[in-house]
Design goal:
The protein is mainly α. The chain has helices at residues 6-18, 22-29, 33-40, 53-82. The protein has 2 domains: 6-40; 51-83.
Length: 83
């Protein structure tokens, strides 16, 4: 679908002046998020990501937990596969 030329320009303007996220731009302009992304992907928000340090640490802890569980499962199964 072709959009009017003013929409990408407006998206870029809002991204720069109001530091709106992709989701916010898509909602405001009533276009898909993927379309907005291609219009503004080279423009950073100039702000910190919205996740907190606690969220990031929790995510890393969860990834570590599941990595260890996966490795333990591989170690238990490996001898039976080699035989």
């Amino acid at each position: 679908m072709a959009y009017p030329a003013y929409l990408p320009e407006r998206a870029r303007e809002l991204r720069i002046k109001k530091a709106l996220s992709i989701d916010e731009l898509a909602e405001r302009l009533a276009v898909p998020k993927t379309t907005v992304y291609y219009w503004v992907k080279d423009l950073s928000l100039g702000r910190e990501p919205r996740w907190s340090v606690g969220q990031r640490n929790g995510n890393l802890a969860m990834q570590d937990k599941w990595r260890r569980l996966r490795e333990d499962a591989y170690r238990q199964v490996a001898p039976s596969i080699r035989s």
